[in-house]
Amino acid sequence: MNGKHKDPASKLGAAWRGIVPIGVASFVALAIGGGVDIVHQHQKAGKKERSAKPAAEQDGTGPRHVVAVRESGAALVVRDVRTGRDVGVPVAAPAGQRFQRVAAAGDGSFVVASATSRKVSFQRLRLTEDGAPTEMAALPGAVVQGASTAWSDMAVAPDGDKIAYVTYQSGGTGRLDVVSAGSGQRKTWTSNTPARVASLSWAGSTLSFVWTPAGQGGDRAVHQVRTLDTSAAPGDLKASKAVLRLPQGSTGAAVLSRDGRRIVAGLAKDAYLALQTYAVDTGRPAEVLWRQKAAGTAARVETDHTGEHLLILSSGGRLYAEGAQPVPAEDLIDTAW
Questions:
Q1: For this UniProt entry, which segments traverse the membrane (predicted)?
Q2: What is the structure's pLDDT at 219?
Q3: How far lies 143's CA from each of 26, 83, 181, in Å?
Q4: Residue 1: predicted pLDDT
């Protein structure tokens, strides 16, 4: 989502079928000449942030591990948000595909999207208690037809079944599919207006997203948070409801709280990144959840599988969580925790 996504397909090893042990995927990664390294070397974090604590002093709130898509799309890694080190070995993408997006599900698993030029498929990843990848299960009935691009986005409902994914058609018009991981049933909403449809998040059957008209950028860009009732009939994205225009300092990274009452937006101001909440019913700012001194803007705001903890992926290539030092992430294009 931060514009670093690249398009060449990854020709990796052997195709997955059903549940593939991570050891097999690791072997594939090792077998590729010039491919994915076993463990990403720990990079020194920048200067200690004013509001961050050293790892030894952290209170342990929030998940410890982030599942992330490497910039090339060739592999997934699990990164420790306290140390910045990778856990276990990278997981190779299916043969002929690239990993695109990853999102947390309510049961603590992760749904991973991979794509060819015209089709997106999904797998479910589970971790051990220590954060190491343990297995990847294909979701054969969950398929989305269309072009996955650097603008594409994904969110998984807390029930772990409903997957929302955005693809794009010629001219930059978006298509939003909501597909069941179990049954494969889907609903589709499309738009005739070129725009970016990003920052997907769920509150029950309500899906929120940030609508940014194509051709806009920088401080002039209009980022509008909208909500869509996915239990209603599919059709045009015009059926969605505008709830908030994000303020200056936002780059369109915002999520809906699980109860549907608050929008949480990532804002950059005066060399700080902050998480600001807004009331859905009034659009008024409520409280600042936390802030940290940081370079760059909020490229993404992520909630964990409980919906209670938040993470910022910055355009400056760092991950920020409450009460923690920033973690290197310049090699990542998408994260979930």
A1: 20-40
A2: 64
A3: 25, 36, 9
A4: 41
